[in-house]
């Protein structure tokens, strides 16, 4: 048997770091003191009330909430996961053991089971620890006597005399269960915390907790798999016994592992010292290179200074010689005293040349050397960037990859990445991005640190391409940069609207979701009744729906998704003065050749059909995008049919009077045409047959920010 003193760390509460007192079992199967749960929840509620966690740090001197737990409380507070009057009451609790946010349900603490088994073990440990310290009688007059037994029914301890007085022979109390002196009193029957009058008699295998028959019949465990308490007791006890026997039988293997770990500890110490020495040597080499460069630069500056000073000094001496009674001027004055012409001419010719040079130097004075040292400025910008990225590279830290499928460019930019192996995930990631500009010679990366695996950016320019890359950090170790991914922002600011459920909305053929962000056409019985009178050809009306907000000026962009199964969808814009005509147009057909008696199939009706429409629309359907037949469009019909993008976008420029249809996934324009923007413009959609359109959700600051935590 394992000695009682060897299990002390199993009996320590993870919150207060003391022996458990009335431990409760959390839904994650970890234990925590009843008092600690209350104190953490008080701190948790205070963080919601105060908008932060400053008050919770000072909630109790007994509890020790770790920094990670406080960070999780702040994260949940910022994420907005608060209950309101319309939602069921639910209590979130940050478990200090598994570092997860646990939902305690509507009953909160009252819905948790008390771990009587752990409480009994803690009591045995306390008794073994305090040895001779006695438990005193609860009913003796001062001074109290040492108790000899404890009554489990009365939850009290007695000496021999008091026990006889309070449990007289022949009474009901005489039948009470008594044990040796203890302070741990547990009920004989475990009752359900949700149904206080019912005893637990089943075990929920999904939630891994005891339940009563009312929980199974109509409570939160109605659809869960349960078993009888005796079966669960037998099964779990057998599994636990086998696992304990296995661990005991592997005692020699455990000792060998401990010996190996001791060697690894020593090896780690030695390797760390060696790594420190190698790092120091690497930096010493850098210091040596810098010192050499510094000395060479200083020598070059000193040499240039001496040469310049020498030139300037020579120039000073020359100009001093021009002064009166000095040098050349004095010599010239003496020559002028010569009266013999032949002797004067012989000497004056050379002197005149020197005088002319001096005169010219006076007229065009220029210093013999520059005083500035601009040529000797050391540019260390690139080297500083390289030194800023100087860190340890590890082969064990995997290179993250930016996921183009999960990343989005819309109202804001959502950049998501993942690690392929998921073996050695980083503690923090650094995301860098820069705008692609052909005119700029040097690239300046903008940097941001991210704790998760996605980041929302809101400072990007419209109609621009950006390059993104990411790397992971684990302590001082970093991974190499990921592959650069180029993404393009929308051509204009994002325009937000919902489907209008009032203006012309046909609720018999169209169905909106509660948020009015999705519309679906129901090709059911009403459509068959409408087509009953048809004998030849296809004559079916389109069901139109517009946005609830109009555009008066400026340039705007919105995106949406068309389900792949959609038979026919038309998308575009409609002016306010033609909305009534749109909803009362009785000649909307699946083909422009709708006249049953036209007598030909020349296609000449196409031009008439397009020009007669009250709004500018393009046709989608059967996983295809159809470019309208215009003079500028290709004559071959097959070249006007493109694959349907997963996400479509429309860009309306009211100032220029143009509307463009985009592949919103790559921000590529598929088709653009002129449009009359004299009135208020509304987004327009038309559906026929089985079809559905979903408006693209705007990327907010909290979009997927806490996805990993949840």
Automatic annotation (TrEMBL):
InterPro entries: B30.2/SPRY (IPR001870), B30.2/SPRY_sf (IPR043136), Bbox_C (IPR003649), ConA-like_dom_sf (IPR013320), COS_domain (IPR017903), E3_ligase_FN3/SPRY (IPR050617), FN3_dom (IPR003961), FN3_sf (IPR036116). PROSITE patterns: B302_SPRY (PS50188), COS (PS51262), FN3 (PS50853), ZF_BBOX (PS50119), ZF_RING_1 (PS00518). The keyword Metal-binding applies. Keywords: Coiled coil, Cytoplasm, Cytoskeleton, Ligase, Metal-binding, Microtubule, Repeat, Transferase, Ubl conjugation pathway, Zinc, Zinc-finger. Residues 477-704 form the B30.2/SPRY domain. It is found in: Cytoplasm, Cytoskeleton. Residues 396-492 form the Fibronectin type-III domain. One of its GO terms (biological process) is acrosome reaction. The keyword Transmembrane does not apply. Residues 258-285 form a coiled coil. Belongs to the TRIM/RBCC family. This is TRI36 ligase.
